Model the fold of this input.
Amino acid sequence: MMIKSVILSGGSGTRLWPASRESYPKQLLPLTGEHSLLQQTALRLQGIPEIDVDPQPLVVTNEEYRFVIAEQLREIHLGQSQIVLEPVGRNTAPALTLAALTAIAEGDDSILLAMPADHVVEDVKAFQKTISAGAKQASQGSLVTFGIIPDRAETGYGYIRAGALVDQSNSSSIESSLAARHLVLFVEKPDADTAADYVASGEYLWNSGIFMMKASVWLKAIEHFRPDILQACRQAFETRQLDADFIRIDKKSFVECPSDSIDYAVMEKLHDAPQLGTSVVLPLSAGWSDVGAWDALWSVSAKNEEGNVARGEVMFQSSHNTLVHANHRLVAAIGCENMIIVETSDAVMVAHQSRTQEVKAVVARLKEEGHTLAQAHRKVYRPWGWYDSIDSGERFQVKRIVVNPGATLSLQMHHHRAEHWIVVKGTAEVTCGEKVFLLAENESTYIPLGQTHRLANPGKVPLEMIEVQSGSYLGEDDIVRFEDTYGRVPA
Done:
């Protein structure tokens, strides 16, 4: 039986602002190594022993992240992965339902391993060993979840109560981390005293949000408990469209789908439906973290002798148990104790480790005040590459633009601005009105206001340019597209 990893990548990670933004959330960031959390998740099952694993994951995400996710998968040589695009967010139960429908449509009743894209697992071998044990249960028709063995009384997680061993004949495995237990119930995030009681009892595990079952088993369960979700997903899936790497789900049908999580929709109700099969939980001890806030990132990161964590160009002086995340400049931390300092190109956040949950409140205030810093970075990713707004003022804006090899921007025009283009590196193919010509390094051209134009990179190296815009209005919505390789021209 083959395992197919289903990566759920729809969250925004507001508590990791300012590194994480709505348009570029935490799962797309390399927070704990060279790979992003999404890439780490996609690679987590590679090399798992004695189990047949589909090397190409299935990612369920939204329209906004589609090109960045596709590019990140290509970077780790998983460019043939399936990417299912939800037109609107409807939580994890509909997302897993779409994944199951995708598998069944291909005649493949695989074991689906549903994993959030934004978790950290430090001990991959231990994770793989537990997944292998879970696959044995799932292959027999069980619905499987994985509970994290708690090392403290945590109030920020939901809990799972584990019951008796599924295999009572193997009493020697009672203390084994690979012993499947009957799933008794899910409980909500507790208060501190209740959490301490849970941990002391030895019967409770943290809810990891990782689930495993055959595609057909999930569809049977969701049909039993939430037929409205299955019906809406089926209608949206039946009228899907294939677009390069993407499976586009029909928006008109999917917006009618109720929003619910895997836990609420199915897993918490399984004790009332024994006819659906056994529901089990496997204890997982693999250095897991959902990296829900900056203090959690400090906890799972490698530290120096003073307990400090540095990413980027950082200098510590008389500081202890402090995390500094520097992206663009040197950050010197002097006399800092238990602090979090995050520097990006357009924002700096400083917080005590005990107050990192309040970052979410800062993001809410930014939204209320209409500030764009909650939504986007200064550096913005596009399907053809990216641009960085270097400087701006009254009637001008300067951007650094990088176009990927072989990529082409849309054929477009602007009502309110003219543009000057200077090639810094590579070769540009420029369409300006009826003219098409090449620009080499240190050459430039001028795009008049109202002129139809297009930029392309015909070369094999990234094209780097400086764009100077001038005009009465310089917003990104002043773009009229006539042709576009990436489907961004309205019908």
About this structure: The mean pLDDT is 93. The two ends are 43 Å apart (CA to CA).
